């Protein structure tokens, strides 16, 4: 792997990758094709990939059925996926969208965020989290993260609220597959009368005290980009227990139409075409059935790494008591990640950095009110984090290759 700062978009094994919608776009489309065909197992070409989407033959059959039906755009297949995903999260309603970013945008519109109003969020996330706030006309206000979980620190949120009176909501980011400190954030929101929009784009199936993310706040958003714990190719979804939010979101993603008569040409509000296709819905339904197994495999891979890397001078992921981490990423910390990444690259192991520039340090955020803030935990994380392959397609040989490479870096033979 080349040094992460050689390309502003990051690099994996020296090739440019572009993050879209909270995921990482593969540098070579053949790698995804190989993974989907079951040939990217870490042994066929001597490499261990950072991601390997797994689309089953059943999903392909379902897509073929949709194609044969002729109903390719939004339709019954999407409605069924919405119902099934809402039930999985323990939420009353769900609204499917074209990707995770449009889910965030539509959810904020549905929650009634108005021009100039502030939403507290994490500076240590994919930029879509904060972008969605700005696209609606709001102001992202950054609070620092917990240095162990990488998620929004409630104490930092309290400090922001002491200084500002324009805050109307909080967007905690459930990062890497771990939920934010929702108990603390919910208490703050209740005290100050704020809405909570969970950015759960990386945390399908994560839990807090037995409750899954997606039904902990006023609404939540998920991404189904190919590298996520489950995929629809591209896609997103909003979950909520609030009928008013679900109805407004459903209208917004369908050109502002009245949800009671979606086929009409009565447009009661401004909106976009953010709809999910029926093909994506069909893939999502098949993927959702497999999500528990996907997450179980990720947790098993993470537990293996935890055990094998325990004696090395690195920080492995934290799973607080009462939380269930689903390891969208297995992210370690080291003070010299470039050297470690180079060693892993020499052993044929892909790595990635999520994220080497905090959002408040991005050029597009130079004019945002908290751009000049000092957020030491987020800035330190950006300098030290490194993600290792943890996806369900890893073989025993793959996992051993990763561990051997890390051990060889610290204890060369």
TrEMBL record:
Any Pfam family the entry gives: DegT_DnrJ_EryC1
GO terms assigned for molecular function: pyridoxal phosphate binding; transaminase activity
GO biological process: polysaccharide biosynthetic process
SUPFAM superfamilies: PLP-dependent transferases
Disordered: annotated segments: 1-50
InterPro entries found in the cross-reference section: DegT/StrS_aminotransferase, PyrdxlP-dep_Trfase, PyrdxlP-dep_Trfase_major, PyrdxlP-dep_Trfase_small
Keywords: Pyridoxal phosphate
Lineage top rank: taxon: Archaea
Family statement: Belongs to the DegT/DnrJ/EryC1 family.
Protein's recorded name: Glutamine--scyllo-inositol transaminase
Organism, scientific name: Natronorubrum tibetense GA33
């Amino acid at each position: 792997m080349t040094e992460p700062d050689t390309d502003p978009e990051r690099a994996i094994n020296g090739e440019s990758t572009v993050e879209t919608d909270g995921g990482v776009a593969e540098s070579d489309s053949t790698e995804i094709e190989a993974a989907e065909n079951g040939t990217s197992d870490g042994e066929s070409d001597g490499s261990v990939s950072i991601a390997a989407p797994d689309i089953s033959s059943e999903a392909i059959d379902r897509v073929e059925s949709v194609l044969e039906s002729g109903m390719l755009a939004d339709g019954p297949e999407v409605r069924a996926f919405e119902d099934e995903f809402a039930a999985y999260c323990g939420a009353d309603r769900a609204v499917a969208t074209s990707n995770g970013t449009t889910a965030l945008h539509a959810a904020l519109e549905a929650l009634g965020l108005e021009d100039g109003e502030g939403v507290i969020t994490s500076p240590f996330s994919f930029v879509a989290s904060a972008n969605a706030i700005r696209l609606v006309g709001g102001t992202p206000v950054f609070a620092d993260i917990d240095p162990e979980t990488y998620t929004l620190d409630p104490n930092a949120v309290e400090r922001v609220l002491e200084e500002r009176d324009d805050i109307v909501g909080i967007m905690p980011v459930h990062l890497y597959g771990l939920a934010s400190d929702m108990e603390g954030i919910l208490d703050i929101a209740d005290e100050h009368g704020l809405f909570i929009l969970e950015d759960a784009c990386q945390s399908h199936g994560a839990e807090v005290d037995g409750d899954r993310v997606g039904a902990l706040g006023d609404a939540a958003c998920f991404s189904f980009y190919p590298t996520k714990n489950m995929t629809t190719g591209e896609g997103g979804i909003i979950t909520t227990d609030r009928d008013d939010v679900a109805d407004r979101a459903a209208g917004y993603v369908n050109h502002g139409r009245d949800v009671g008569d979606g086929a009409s040409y009565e447009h009661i509000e401004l909106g976009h075409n953010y709809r999910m296709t029926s093909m994506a819905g069909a893939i999502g339904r098949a993927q959702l059935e497999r999500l528990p197994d996907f997450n179980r495999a990720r947790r098993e891979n993470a537990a293996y790494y935890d055990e094998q890397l325990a004696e090395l001078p690195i920080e492995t992921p934290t799973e607080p008591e009462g939380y269930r981490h689903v390891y969208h990423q297995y992210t370690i910390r080291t003070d010299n990640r470039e050297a470690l990444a180079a060693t892993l690259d020499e052993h044929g192991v892909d790595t990635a950095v999520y994220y080497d520039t905090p959002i408040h340090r991005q050029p597009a955020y130079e004019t945002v009110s908290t751009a000049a803030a000092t957020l030491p935990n987020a800035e330190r994380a950006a300098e030290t984090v490194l993600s290792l392959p943890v996806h369900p397609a890893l073989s025993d040989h793959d996992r051993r290759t990763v561990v051997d490479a890390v051990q060889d870096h610290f204890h060369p033979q």
